[in-house]
Amino acid sequence: MSVPPISNHQAQRTSRADAQQVKQHEKAPSPVKSEEFSASRTELKARANQSIVEAMFGGVKQGDDKAMNILYTEIMDTINKELGVEHAVTAEKMAGQAEDYWSPENTAGRIVDGALGFFETFQKQNSKMPEEEQVEKFLSIITKSIDKGYGEAVKVLDGLKVFDGSIKDNAEATRSLITDKLEAFREAKLGKAPEQGDA
């Protein structure tokens, strides 16, 4: 018994059906493979993030500088939002960085200088207020802004899992120096240290 030859039309239909079956098989990966792929993507992302953190904070000096830059930026951003960016001392306005540019002393100095740069404008805006009240209210505003910015910086650094060791020490030393410098400003203006409970 002879088998009739397959026409071109039948051959094309058969090859299309085979191709569709292959494509459907490729499109429907097993759930296990999908989960494995998702897990490996998450792992790769975590490794990439870790590499970024290590690149940013790997070298002790370089890592400390980047952390202090984050601290400075977060604090100055909150002060600028509160008091007005047009008078702000920003990182972009800083020229020629010395080797110890990001030391706690220098960073605290720039933050305090930037914050106190707003005082004259604040006095003009509150000219009817007695000077003592101007100073106390101004210091209360910028202290709250500094605390908020410091908290944001700590969150960023903690989220990157680098807020420890010298980075933490430098940040805390900077915050302490800021307090000292603001108290020195108050004494220079009013001839007295803050009373217990003052902000």
UniProtKB/TrEMBL annotation:
<feature type="region of interest" description="Disordered">
    <location>
        <begin position="1"/>
        <end position="42"/>
    </location>
</feature>
<feature type="compositionally biased region" description="Basic and acidic residues">
    <location>
        <begin position="23"/>
        <end position="42"/>
    </location>
</feature>
<dbReference type="Pfam" id="PF18433">
    <property type="entry name" value="DUF5610"/>
</dbReference>
<feature type="domain" description="DUF5610">
    <location>
        <begin position="66"/>
        <end position="185"/>
    </location>
</feature>
<protein>
    <recommendedName>
        <fullName>DUF5610 domain-containing protein</fullName>
    </recommendedName>
</protein>
<feature type="compositionally biased region" description="Polar residues">
    <location>
        <begin position="1"/>
        <end position="22"/>
    </location>
</feature>
<dbReference type="InterPro" id="IPR041651">
    <property type="entry name" value="DUF5610"/>
</dbReference>
